[in-house]
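@here heads up, posting the sequence + SMILES for the zinc ion run so it's all in one place. Ping me if the SMILES looks off, I pulled it from an old spreadsheet.
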Amino acid sequence: MQLTRLTQALLLSLVAGHAAAATLDSSREHIAAQAKALEPELLKTRRDLHAHPELGNSEKRTSELVAKQLKALGLEVKTNVARTGVVAVLKGALPGPTVALRADMDALPVKEVADLPFASQAKGTYLDKQVDVMHACGHDAHTAILLSTAKILTGMRDTLPGTVVFYFQPAEEGPSDFIPDGKNTWGAKMMVEEGVMKSPKPDAVFGLHVWAGVPAGQIAYRPGATLASSDDLRIKILGKQTHAGRPWDGIDPITVGAQTIVGLQTVVSRRTDISSYPSVVSIGTINGGTRYNIIPESVDMSGTIRSYDYGIRQKLHADVRQTIEKIAESGGAKADVTIIEKYDPTINNPALTEKMLPTLKWAAKDDVVNAPLVGGAEDFSFFAKEVPGLFVFLGVTPRDQDMGKAAPNHNPGFFVDESALVVGVRTMASLATDYLYGSTGVSK
Ligand SMILES: [Zn+2]
Ligand SMILES: [Zn+2]
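bot reply: prediction finished. Complex structure tokens:
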């Protein structure tokens, strides 16, 4: 039988489609098998990192361990990126797009309370003070997960259509030697500033975060705004010192400070459109005065401003500034207001999120739920501002535990149920491969 050209073309594309679909299916099978096989090594690495946590920009041992493992895989490895970061590039044998996978490596000035054989005894220096250090945000898990992912994907190099870049970033929580001079050295921000995303330029970036209060192995995600922006608010109210029995002789910055705190509560409740996203303005510290019968010269306060939208964020800054300055003026005082932008909002690209949802479902065996907005912030936002990004949460609270009672991230009792980590490897590896195969015209 003579086949027409069209029929031939159709048959060929069908065969090609099946072959490619088979590649996608077989890549997932490979990932599943390898993730399981590598689990002992994954846990060993995670426990080693957990026992040796290091603060932001001091991740010396951690980045050496990471670089050593990546070099052993034969990848192109760059060290000392953004001070202590590591970047590795895996070039697949076939042409295709580029994806970036990110893990953060830093720990927190927190004293661990868990009774684990690999509990942290580490100390570090935080803002010139000696502190206990703990992986209280689970970045040890992220680093171990991405190292296993790199190993699995390197083993698939011969069939990989495209490039995978691994970002092991420092200082997600901020540097341990941060001086508020406007020179921010948050890891992701600095990596972007150093041009890490320029060569090779990824088409998409993926990251995950282990999360307390979510059942171990469950993935929570949301399209669009996911974590808040976080900006530092610093206020100095300048009055005029006098005897507290004769307040009319001076200008009382304490009373102005009290009015300022109350006034700031109206910025969100009266002046901000909360129909799309919530916002938060909180004051965390007040310092002023030395003695009960002296009205001091000045009062210092600090706080945080959080939002989920760039436009709302800028309006909040203007409203906060105006509220503080005008309240001070009404009391005859002066206010110096400094707002330092620390973290951008983390916004998941909606189209990328939709495209990768089947991958998340595969990775977590259908245990995927919608996440609420998170009031915390993440510097993954700086990567996701450059190219489409997706950042998901991986539950790490034991399933037999009351989720509402789990010690949250950053708490001294923060605990990772390690059974979830293999799901993290399935997630990161398949996000990369599914994206690469999907972008070469194959999707399941
Ligand atoms: Zn954290
Ligand atoms: Zn974190």
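MO: The two ends are 32 Å apart (CA to CA).
MO: One more: The longest strand covers residues 204-215.
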